[in-house]
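I am writing to request your help with a piece of structural work I have in hand. The matter concerns a single protein, recorded as an amino acid sequence and a row of backbone structure tokens. Could you please explain, in whatever detail you think fit, how the structure tokens follow from the sequence? Thank you for your consideration; the sequence and its tokens are set out here:
>
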Amino acid sequence: MREREALWRAAAQLAARGGAAALATVARRRGSLPMASDAKMLVRPDGFRAGTIGGGCLEADVTGQALESVRTGRPAVVRHTLNADVAGDLGLSCGGTVELFVEPVIGGPVAASLYDAVADAIAGRRAAAVFTAIEWTDGPRKAARIEDRVLCVGDWAEIPAAPTLDRPGPPMTAHDRLFLEPILRRPRLVIFGAGHVGCEIARAAAGTDFHVVVVDDREEFANGDRLPSAEEVRVADLRRALDDLVLDGDDYVIACTRGHAMDALVVERTAASPARYVGMLGSRRKREVIWQALERAGVPRPALERVKVPIGEAIGADTPAEIGIAVLAELIRVRRSATQLAE
């Protein structure tokens, strides 16, 4: 179970049994800070935590503020600033300002169903939006839109429309006094080829919240024993698998099959797709040979030029494990650059 899903599952379990806990979610941040823009943490009074907002003294302070919201039964927006002086005093190299929304976990079966539904959406790669009232004077108010389904806790005259966002934010709406939390689909990484390098890429990517799919036509290679971290392992003819594949802008594709012809097929069928990233394992020489053949087959040169070959950051990787790390570093850079450009 991935970290974001596990956090919402933990909230659902606590809500179902009436356990005390709080959630802290990054709302806005500015500057260099040690957390992702969608960082989230759940804490219990006994010290249990799920997720993280960066660790260190900042997390300790926010933990105290989140548990204070449990005591009062009300949410709050808290602000932390790490300027150069404070960062130096604390032994940190970062500096910036972050606002976090802290809230008690709402008890009861209705809230438990909402938390579970959000976890299901994350697991199933379905986009969702969670809305939480900033003021709980008349009791907790929380709602979630997951595709056509709406769940709510408390009285709502109208549930806001789901935002058309491709990234977190803006998180708070002044007019409605709501905290908005978009639940974005996990990016999907489709790896064609379950050889040594494909397995290492899958293993590395699974730890950074990619939904990993591995496709190979050899059952002795494409199986759960060799690929325990992949969400999907498909034993299929590559042409048939490509026929069934529908790619979106949050998809990443890697061709690392056992042969040039199969790699060429994957590139031919995905180069002009909406996928955020298409890459092929191999040398520059391999790229030129395959590109010439694909151009003769009618693949437009601009589509081929977006395909990354060789793949991976230039760290001198040699072994399959090292190549897996290098490729993951490149995927993370591409993934985060999309978010940063949108902010």
Summary: The chain is about 35% helix and 25% strand. Residues 85-93, 165-170 have pLDDT under 50 and may be disordered. The radius of gyration is 23 Å.
